Prior knowledge:
Blueprint: H1 2-14, H2 20-26, H3 32-82, H4 93-101, H5 110-121, E1 130-132, E2 144-149, E3 152-158, H6 163-166, E4 174-175, H7 179-182, E5 189-195, E6 201-207, E7 220-228, E8 231-238, H8 245-255, E9 261-265, H9 277-283, E10 289-295, H10 296-299, H11 311-315, E11 319-320, H12 326-334, E12 339-343, E13 355-360, H13 367-376, E14 381-385, E15 394-400, E16 404-414, E17 420-421, E18 430-431, H14 436-440, H15 445-454
Parallel strand pairs: 8-9, 9-13, 11-12, 13-14, 14-18
Antiparallel strand pairs: 1-16, 2-3, 3-4, 4-5, 5-6, 7-8, 10-12, 10-16, 15-16, 16-17
Amino acid sequence: MDAICSRTTYIRCKSKGQSSDSYWNNLEVFNVMQIMQTMKRLLVVCILCSLGLLKCSAQSISAQQDRYLKAFDAVWSTVDQQFYDPSFLGVNWKAVGDRYRTRVPKIQDDVSFVDLIRQMLHELPTSHLGFRGPDASYDTSIGALLRTIDGKDVVSDVWFGTDAERKGLKQGDTILSSQKDLDGVWGSFANVRVLTCDGRQKHLSIRREDYGAPFERPSVRWQLFEPSSTQKIGYMHIQHFEDDFAPVVDQAMSEMADTSALIIDVRNNSGGNASYIRLVSYLTAKPHMVFALLSRPYLNQFGNAPQKMDPKMMLRLPNVTGAYTSARIIAAFEDNNGGAAFYSEDVGSRKYHGKVIVLVNQETASAAEGFAAIMKQEPNVTLIGQPTAGAVVGAESFPIPGGWNLAVPTHSAWLGNGDIYRDEKTSPNIFVPLTKVDLCSQRDTVLDKALDLVE
Length: 455
């Protein structure tokens, strides 16, 4: 308050066009009553000003804290109600919420609030649990994938059409900047220090944008290799398992029906939905339960998410076929008390009889690695590449008051034998390492190995 009064007095003096000293010298001509009246007016101005400032500041802080507390409570309660495992993977979720809620009043800005929420969510050992701010900017990097090779961050892929591609960032380049320097607000620029494949250091100003977004349409593309006049090999690249996948893959399999081998590339595929069951129908011997999806309403009867379900109980679940969009997949188990079994279909004479190779890497995640794990069980299928990400549960997105967005794992998968399948890496049958030399030379050694096996 002293600082406010001094500032107010000084402004009052200067408003008369005088210095502070001349003002106080002129007081000598005032009588005592005038002096007292003047001081009273100054004191009233100081008090009112101070009270006004304090009131406004308190209101502002109170409104901000109220906003964060409401968002915090919405996040905690949404996870509490929607997380698939009633036991929260052995974590005392209530205690976690109580502990972190005491820290909310100390939060001063949105970035700190996002960090706090993410720390709380990280207490649950699961993938697909995330929180983003109103501007969806906190996870954005430079439009490229980085892999750690020999302890260094090396560019493994640059997304088509990004600023990174236009600025000349290439596969095999080593990023010398830290990840903290790369991440930032969507559309802002990162100053990136790069060591090129030919040993030159350079600085690039690269606009921050997501890798892999928007997804390719169609989500599947394919082509034929013809190493000889008597052999045809099919190649299918799946960037993401999207709602358009089933009808497009029908067309692809029709055009590649007479090939002797099929290479399915799900590298850098971050997942999507279970539409891949349509492709499984072409590649497996007969219709069967691919998996069951179980959510909280169904799992509440067990009090947890069992590592092993009774296969007989799973056979009593509602049978679902032909659910190839996210809306239909979610509706299938939500409409059946939180549980449903998803089956492949009988494609008749269109069943594929050739050899199948599936290409995987560390960015093969979620639904894509679920597909890879299921295909690995088949006798005529070989996986080649590097182990997958190990991020396999089903999540849904929930709006949080204030413009925030929360992703929560609402369901998990159980295989036909009753085993739970969640957040597990799938190892390839044939491991092919990714090296900086191969990236710099633009050599795809994983695809090369696949072609060696089928030619």
